Amino acid sequence: MQILSVTLKNFKTHQDKHFTFAPGTNAICGENGAGKTSILEAIAWALFNYIGDYAKDDLIRNGSGSAEVTVEFISNQDGRTYTVQRHTNKGYTIFDPQLNERLPYTRIKDEVLPWLRDHLGVSPGTDLGELFARTIGVPQGTFTADFLQSAENRKAVFDKVLKVEEYKTVYKDLNSLRRFAEAKVAAVDAEIAGYEEQLAGLEELQARHQQVITEISTSEAQIKTLETQLATLQQERDALKAQTDAVQKLQTERQQVQAQLDGQQQAIALLTQSLNQAQAAAKICAETRPAYQAYQTAEQELQALTQRQTDRQARQKKQQQLQKTLDTRAADLTRLKVQLEGFATAAQEIQQLAPAVQEQTRLEAQLQTLQQQQTALAQVRGELQASEKQTQQQAQQVEQLQQELTRLQALEAAVATLHEVEQQRDRLQQQLSRIEAARQFETELRQLVERGQASCDRHQSEANTALDTLADLQQSIPVLSVDSITSLKSALESGVTINRAIVADVEKILADLSTQTDADQLRSQLQAAKSRLTQLSQQQATLATRPAKQQQLTRLQTQQQTLAEHTQTLQSQLAAGDDLATQLATLQTALAQLEDPKGRTAVLSRSLQQQPTVQKRYDEMQTAQTGIQKQIDELTAELAEFDDLDAAIATHNQAKQAHQAGYLQYLQNEKAAQDESRLTQDLATAQTALVAKQQAREQVQTQLDQALADFDPQRAQQVDASYQSVRSERDRLAGSLPSQQQRLQDYQRQIDALKAVADKRDAATAERQQRDRIKRFINFARKAYKEAGPRITERYVQQISREGDRLFRELINRPNVALTWTRDYEILVQEGPNKRRFVNLSGGEQMCAALAVRLALLKVLADIDIAFFDEPTTNMDRPRRESLAEAIARIRSFNQLFVISHDDTFEKVTENVIVVEREA
């Protein structure tokens, strides 16, 4: 697998960045806070679904609504290039550039993560986030932390990585599957028992089915015999029924003719009565016609008079409206006349107010000038308050900065000892790693001291003997030089002194070694040195801010001086405006005493502007009043013509009342009189029809008498009775036949259902055998998982240990060392005959050992040939940083490595350098 590039849009500190990667070691460099770690976090989020302790909102750049990461990589599965894009709101988009199409994977858990596992080379079911956090991209500062924990804590970490608990989990999960299989077998047994119980009545049901078949055959034979009898009776019954129908038809026809004859006679009687009534009505109409005509004449005259009455009322109404308008406008004329008189008064008042207006204008100009000055002074006063407040704040800031600089000055001496404490820590770590050798050396020195002391004592004794011999020789041989004897004595004594001095020096070394071989004391001193180193590192970072604070102090002091000069200028401006309030009060009092003549003049001037309009309106209304009065006079003359209208209306109303009775009587008889001639004709026609119907009745009676002579009603009743009896029997048998057939069908369905139950029983029996085999297989699988877990885990540890051992020698570049990763996940390093635990290794050796095991985990478990290192050289001095960088560069088993560094350590060992710059 190979990651080609990553594109970040609004991801954490990056607004829009694109980074390209190459095979081998890729060094990501830049200052602190530039967003180097964010690049690895973006790859982890897109390819491994790992977000760490962040929330989704933490990934979005400040001020943006969403974040997006696009990673282009070469698949470990098919060697093709793919593009994976992840958006905080829209989710995943996977694109195949070679096919130029988007792959249909959007659901993270069900589609995207399985696809990523396949193309990353990870086994199904692997937690990609856990894999990244523990092996591929261990967070900054925790690379060796897992290996320094206790055995119990290491087990919790690496059991999860090696999936040890998965075998136990599967074993436990299969228990529920076992119970489920046993329950399935029991369920099939119960199902088979139920089927057997249902099949208990099958034989009895089959006997009933055969009995019903026999009954149906007998009924069908009887029905055929009865249908033959019915056919014979039907022929005779049909002939008799034809005679019966003919007799009934003639009887019905006779009744109809008789009814028509009776109706015709009733119609003639009614026509005769109506003709008599019409003749009487015609006589009454002839007598009342004069009254009818006189009433109609009076009605027509009244209609004409009513129209004249309407015209009179319209003229009267118009006269009243004109008179009302005349009265209303008279009031308006009076109001307009009063307004015109007021305009003359207003003109005089404006002339009187002219001097006061000039005075008011002069005072308002002065007042406006003073108010502008007052506003300017208010601004100066506000600016002065702000300046004083800013002066206080700057004084506080200067004081705080001076205190902070004093504190930082005090840290300088302590930070100067940082290198010395680092050397002390390294020396203690070396002593701890060599404690066994020191103990062996102490034992050998102690033996050497004992031998030296014995040798010194022996040498002292021999020297004393030699000195005594020299004294005897000097006495016996006086010719011997005194200087020679003295020189020999001095040489002997010097030899004894030197031996004593050497033994004393060795004893001092032994005293020093006694402290170096005390492991508990060394660990305590190492812990104290590490704590002191951490404290000094923090103080060093704090001390690094001193130049910036010093610049800030200088800048604040300059600002203080400028602000003081500005404050003095503002105070002098305020002093010049002390008498401004008195001048303002005097002017305001003078203006109040004038009582606003300018305003009153403006009001009067606006009123005078209306004078031409009012005058014009007044003239127009006077002209309109004259026209309205003329219309009223004309209407009065027209109304005089209607003086005789009421008398004429009364005369014609009296004529209507006098002829009203004759008019109403004529109306009541007019319609009946008009029907006289029609009724006379209808009566003659009805009498002719009556004669024809009498002849028809006699003809129908003759035919009926002849038909009754040929008809035997008793025989017809006997045949009909026999027919009904045979048909009833046939219908009874035919009616019972469907129920028998229904019973037969029910029996058949029941038999078929029981046969289906029998088939189900046979299928259930076969299924029971299959489920029993499945239950035995599940029990076998549980046992296999229970026994296979420890063996597979042991095999994993052995493979990782072998791969880690090879990588460790490659990293540390020493072929005579061996690394072992034990079953309790502890790292042991053997060099020659000595074997050291992980805690006893130096810082560089710990980093290389941890790196080797983590890379081996990747090789064995995931078959992934990429890895990420975030600040692996943290808290290392330059020689160790360079040594680790060279070690990582020597790794050839991985196709691509990503290393984040804040210095130039890794730039020296690789050409693939990505420089990340801080965004504004």
Features:
single chain; 920 residues; alpha+beta; six-stranded antiparallel beta sheet; four-stranded parallel beta sheet; 13 strands; Nuclease SbcCD subunit C; P-loop_NTPase
Describe it for me?
The chain has 920 residues and is α+β, with helices and mostly antiparallel strands. Among the domains are: 2-156 and 863-915, Rossmann fold, CATH 3.40.50.300; 317-381 and 590-631, no CATH class; 418-543. Helix content is 76%, strand content 8%. A six-stranded antiparallel beta sheet has the order 2-1-4-5-6-7, with helices on one face. Strands 11-12-3-13 form a four-stranded parallel beta sheet, with helices on one face. The chain has a three-stranded antiparallel beta sheet with strand order 8-9-10. A hairpin with a 4-residue loop joins strand 6 (91-96) and strand 7 (101-103). Helix 6 (202-415) packs across helix 13 and helix 6 (202-415) runs parallel beside helix 18 (713-812). GO terms for molecular function: ATP hydrolysis activity. This is Nuclease SbcCD subunit C. It holds the Pfam family AAA_15.
What topology does this entry show?
Elements: E1 2-11, E2 14-20, E3 24-29, H1 36-47, E4 68-74, E5 81-87, E6 91-96, E7 101-103, H2 108-120, H3 128-136, H4 151-162, H5 164-198, H6 202-415, H7 418-433, H8 435-476, H9 482-516, H10 519-543, H11 546-575, H12 580-594, H13 597-608, H14 611-639, H15 645-658, H16 660-674, H17 676-710, H18 713-812, E8 817-821, E9 827-831, E10 834-837, H19 843-862, E11 866-870, H20 878-889, E12 896-901, E13 912-915
Parallel strand pairs: 3-12, 3-13, 11-12
Antiparallel strand pairs: 1-2, 1-4, 4-5, 5-6, 6-7, 8-9, 9-10
Helix pairs in contact: 5-18, 6-10, 6-11, 6-12, 6-13, 6-14, 6-15, 6-16, 6-17, 6-18, 7-10, 8-9, 18-19, 19-20
